[in-house]
Amino acid sequence: MKRIILVIGAKGMLGRDLMGILHSSFSKDEIIGWDIEEVDIRKEDESVTKIEKLGPEIVIHIAAYTDVDGCELDMEKAFAVNGEGTKHVALAASKCRAKMVYLSTDYVFDGEKGEPYLESDPPHPLNVYGQSKLKGEQYVQEGVKDSLIVRTQWLYGPFGKNFVDSILRQAREKSTLSIVNDQMGSPTYTADLAKALFGLIQFGARGIFHVANSDFCTWYTFAEAILKLSGVNRVRVLPISSKELGRPATRPSYSVLNCQKLKKETGLTMRSWSEALKDYLSTHRQLSADPGDR
Ligand SMILES: NC(=O)c1ccc[n+]([C@@H]2O[C@H](COP(=O)([O-])OP(=O)(O)OC[C@H]3O[C@@H](n4cnc5c(N)ncnc54)[C@H](OP(=O)(O)O)[C@@H]3O)[C@@H](O)[C@H]2O)c1
Fold first, then answer.
1. In the beta sheet, which residues pair with residue 218?
2. Which of 1, 169, 255, 277 lies at a C-alpha separation of 20 to 30 Å from 213?
3. Helix 163-173 vs helix 273-284: angle between axes, to the nearest 10 degrees?
4. pTM of the model as a whole
5. Could you read off the pLDDT of 214-272 as tens digits, one per residue?
6. What's the gap in Å between 77 CA and the centre of ligand 1?
7. Is 117 a catalytic site residue?
8. Is the minimum distance from the CB of 12 to ligand 1 under 6 angstroms?
9. CA–CA separation, 58 vs 99, rounded Å?
10. Separation CA 172–CA 164 (nearest Å)
11. Tens of pLDDT along 141-154?
12. Which of 66, 107, 117 to mutate to test the pocket of ligand 1 (most atoms within 8 A of CB)?
C-alpha cells in the first residue's frame, strides 16, 4: 500500500539530498517535502493541524535553526525552532501514529570523554544550539512511540553553505587561511548520510543512532585535504586555536561519534571522510577551482 512520507526541512542542505534518495528508493510511496514556506514548526496549531490533515506514516524532521553562533545570540529562536518546534512535530506524529525520524547533533556532547561517543553516553551540551537540539531529542523520546534519533556532525553537501565550499572560496581570495586545529570530528557528506537514513528507515530502526563518515580530523586537517584534493597549492593554511578564532558559541574539542551500533544492528557502513570528500569534489566542485589557484 502507498505510504505518505513527510520530510520537514526538505529545502535545506540535507533535505535536498534526502528528497532525491527517497524519491528514487521509495518510488511506490508518496514523498512530500515541506519547509518553512509550507509549515512554520514554531506555530503549534498550524503545524499540528496541517500534519494531521496529511496523515503521514513516517515524519522525517530535519528542519532546524542550524546557525550555531546565531543560536548563541538568539536563544529564544533556537529553543522555539529546535526545541518547541520539534515538540509540535512530535505531537502531530503521535496523533497520526506515525514513525518519527529526528536529526540531532554531536554538539549534545561536551567533548570531555576523549574517545568516540556512544549513543548511551550522557549528553552535556556546551552551547545553546546543542541544548536546544537535546531538548528536541527529549520531546521526541517522550512524545512518540516509534522514533528514530540520528546524531550526525560536520555536514557538507551540494545544497547548502558549508565548510568545503567556504574554504575553496576563501582560497580564491586569500593567500593564507587560519583554521581551527583544536576541535576533532568527522566531516560528513550529506549524500552518504541521506543513504544511511534511507537504510535505517528501511530496516525499521528505532532509538538513537550515531551516523557520520568514518575516521576523524580537525578543521585544519580537513581544510588542508580540501585544498590538496582540489589541486590548490599556493595557499598556506595556519593552525589556530578556537580561542583565537573567538566565535560566540563554544564547541566541544572532541565530538567524534562512535558509529559501531549502525554497523552492528543494521549492517550499514559509512566510508571514510576523505573518500567522501574526494567524491564530493569530483562530482560537484570539479569546475569551481580557478586554474589561477593551482
Ligand atoms: N549542518 C550540520 O553540520 C549539522 C550537524 C549535525 C546535525 N545537523 C542537523 O541535521 C539537520 C539538517 O541540517 P542542515 O544542515 O541540512 O540544515 P539547513 O540546511 O539549515 O536546513 C534546515 C531547514 O529547516 C528550515 N527551517 C528553519 N526554521 C524552520 C521552521 N521554523 N519551520 C520549518 N522549517 C524551518 C530552514 O529554512 P531556512 O533556511 O529558510 O531557515 C532550512 O530549509 C538539522 O536538524 C540539523 O540540526 C546538522
1. 184
2. 169
3. 60
4. 0.96
5. 999 999 999 999 999 999 999 999 999 999 999 999 999 999 999 999 999 999 999 99
6. 13
7. no
8. yes
9. 5
10. 13
11. 999 999 999 999 99
12. 66
